[in-house]
Amino acid sequence: MPRVKRGVGHVKKRHTLRKKVKGYKWGRKNWLRLAKTAAVKAGAHSYVGRKKEKRVRRNLWQIKINAAVRAHGLSYSKFINLLKTNKIGLDRKIMADLAENNPAILEKIIKELK
């Protein structure tokens, strides 16, 4: 069996790792041992952050909708319930955008529900 020299693969692996950790502080951008752990932890944190971002956005939408419908004598939960019973398929993202940018359209929707 012929001898296999592994230098090319090893250099490529280091190169991709260094690209991942570019801009990190202290030795985590230079030293391989620190760079490996930094890259793994950064990936874990970014995964959690992507999930958390969805929760934060939905919470913000709920706050915006609640503030807008309270001016018309409704609570958020009653408003959402009216939307579901009347089978209006607008999601919270769209409703929050309407509440912030087009309150007149949201007012028409609320009058339609009542």
Structure in words:
This protein is an all-alpha fold. It has one domain: Orthogonal Bundle (c-terminal domain of poly(a) binding protein). Helices cover 74% and strands 0% of the residues. It has helices at 7-20, 32-70, 76-85, 92-101, 103-113. Helix 1 packs parallel to helix 2 and helix 4 packs across helix 5. The longest helix is centred in the middle third of the chain and has 39 residues, at 32-70. It is rod-shaped and about 80 Å long. It starts with 6 loop residues before the first helix and ends with a helix. The relative contact order is 0.08. The model has no long low-confidence stretch (mean pLDDT 94).
Task: Give the topology, please.
Layout: H1 7-20, H2 32-70, H3 76-85, H4 92-101, H5 103-113
Helix pairs in contact: 1-2, 2-4, 4-5
Helix and strand composition category? mainly alpha
Give the rounded overall mean pLDDT.
94
- Approximate shape: rod-shaped
Poorly predicted tracts of residues:
none
Helix share of residues?
A: over 70%
Helix and strand run: HHHHH
The CATH architecture can be given as Orthogonal Bundle
How many domains, in number, for the residues? 1
